[in-house]
Amino acid sequence: MTDVKPELEKTLLLVDDDKPFLNRLTRAMEARGFTVKAAAGVHEAIAAVRADPPAYAVVDLRLEDGNGMEVIEEIRAVGQEARMIVLTGYGNITSAVYAVKHGAVDYLAKPADADEIYAALMYEKGEDLALPENPMSADRVRWEHIQRVYEMCHHNVSETARRLQMHRRTLQRILSKRAPK
């Protein structure tokens, strides 16, 4: 990292609208030595960046009040050379490329745990990249996608089934089961 003031070296901005996840990640990163500022939306995060630019940032792509890329662009606009990670449950190649071109050093799909996020923040070029020990199964990936769409549809089964192009009863059976491993 260049141009990072010593007192900013372990400052971290976490931006996610999933409050329980944000709280867990805040505690986990504080345990790893970071001074954490947590923000639940774009406007709150931009205000935090303007008040005190962080050395590190983990930003959710889709937030209730906008796009997390606005936060990344704001960090770059204030001239801070922060190491930024984009974290999203709606991953696709286009948004990954866009995030990296605009300053993110990595792009992680949810559900990412604190160890994965910490490793991505601390990763230096030239280091061997460790593969995940327990990658998600195809069933788990499918279940996660269905859950995200279900939440996006405000827990409306009929609308979720329509968007996923599946029968409503099939969706209800899937939703009634536990998450696969």
TrEMBL record:
Keywords: DNA-binding, Phosphoprotein, Transcription, Transcription regulation, Two-component regulatory system. Residues 11-125 form the Response regulatory domain. SMART domains: REC. One of its GO terms (biological process) is phosphorelay signal transduction system. GO terms for molecular function: sequence-specific DNA binding. PROSITE patterns: RESPONSE_REGULATORY (PS50110). The modification 4-aspartylphosphate is found at D60. InterPro entries: ActR_PrrA_rreg (IPR047772), Bact_response_regulator (IPR050595), CheY-like_superfamily (IPR011006), HTH_Fis (IPR002197), Sig_transdc_resp-reg_receiver (IPR001789). NCBIfam families: ActR_PrrA_rreg. This is Two component response regulator.
